[in-house]
Amino acid sequence: MIEIENITKVYQMGETEVRALNGITLKIEDGEWTAITGPSGSGKSTLMAILGCLDSPTSGSYKFDGVDVAKMRDDELAAVRNKKIGFVFQQFNLLARTSALENVGLPLLYSSVNHRHERAEAALKAVGLGDRLKHHPNELSGGQQQRVAIARALVTEPSIILADEPTGNLDSKTSREIMELFSELHKTRGMTVIFVTHDPTIAANANRVIHIMDGVVV
Amino acid sequence: MRLNFSQNVRSALRALLANKLRSALTMLGIVIGVGAVVALLSIGTGAQASITNRIEGIGANLITVFAGTRNQNTPSGAGAGATAPLTYEEAQQLKGLTGVAAVSPEVTSRSPLKVGKNQETAQIVGVTPDYALAHPDQLDHGRFIVASDLTGKTRNAVVGSQVVTDLFGGLDPVGKQIKINGILFNVVGVMKSQGSGGFGFSRDTTTYVPLTTAFTYLSRTKVGNQNTVSTIEVSAADSNSISTAIAAITDKLTILHKIKPGATADFTVQSQADILAAATQVTGVLTVFLGAIAGISLVVGGIGVMNIMLVSVTERTREIGLRKAVGARRSDILYQFLTETIVLSVLGGIIGILVGAGISGLVNASGTIATVVSAQSVALAFGFSAAIGIFFGLYPANRAAGLKPIEALRYE
Fold it and tell me: Are strands A33-37 and A192-197 parallel, antiparallel or unpaired?
């Protein structure tokens, strides 16, 4: 469960202060399927980064599964990301010249689990790429690459998946397929899925839509 | 560390293979540096070994007496203080001292040798029969200078092996004639080849004549009515009596030269060991000097590695961001990049050692210097290249490890 209270994030751009988040209070229950929308510059990506423990808020409190993560050190945050959060990015962010299997297994390199190979293979099968294990990213279509990225997010069996514009680089048909995959993961595994999008039709897939503007929830 | 060593090395190799040309060129800097260290140290060590051999080959248990004070701390040839030349008469008085087996006074000059139209300048040494006792087993064939040559001031000469090739066309010169400084001599013997003295200096043109003949025709410096000699070589009875002989010679010459107690002597008595120590010190300094120059190229190679790793970190900012997003800690990224640099340097080091050993082998085959690739020089070069990998890899790796995940992910 995610509980944030009065979160602010201030960037110092030379002389001027930019308040990307201006006091956001949110609660996202386990198993929710939530979309965060808003125009560019609204602060939705900053909120995403903070929710994903990739960045720390300037002020406010953040409880992740009851644990205060707002003041955690970098290495502790890395452990939280590794165990509890799966990321899916707009740019896929797969390692080039590296097989799908190894890309999916990457988060496991930074955890202490066993059977890395088998887990990675199972995750790829779960996203329908059981026959593409040895393929490199440049041998896969955009939709397949994003599926590899989703498998990578699933492989550590996190409690939530955070997706930042996951369909931003895909055509509408592939976008629908990816959204169906998220929907299926949400239903069958009961995972919390949070995704950022500026596209209202994609946001419409979610059970809950949080609209952000000028750093506050509207 | 959750990533084990072999996984780290494998992923480092993959990253390096992704940019083959760049990795190869970077490695080349290390290869040249390590190769230069190994090759130059082997040449230095070889020169040292060859000089040591030469000096040991000059004669066993040999003590050299010369005028002036000269030791390993003053440049060779620089006599300090007053110099009174040594005389033939003094040499005679050294005979029969405790521990002394043979006394060979010598007078050395450089003079032209001429046979028919062939001519060359060589070192001419006036010697007594005792020279053969101090330097045993150096005559190839014919005979050496004998007592009757000395008393009769005969114009007989024993020539070096190189002279046979240079002036006699390789034919046996014994019984033939040679002009030394314009004076006709009979060749009575030929010396064995001594080989190179190191650094291209040959002792094989040296030609020997009776000492008395040399006084008459070649060296006319006198003190009063005494003939002066260049050096007196003394052969000790055995290796245990060297120090006894040195003490006896020093005492005798101190009296003969009327050196007051406490005053600096105007002559030097040096054993083979002293000369060896001096030569070893010189070649040792030379070896260190050569190694230091090679070391500089290794440092330059290391800077090349650092430069490329900095480029690599910048290029792979997004990869670093992703790795951090999926749970890589600061130390994981640090080890990843450090491993890449070390793999690069160590591979370069191994190739460099092979290249250096190859160059050393070529020098050896060319016959100039018998080179020795020592285990120490290989260990030094290898250790140095690994150290350079760590030293020059630490900054780029630290920079990568310090990147903020969100900024790295958004890096364009």
Answer: parallel
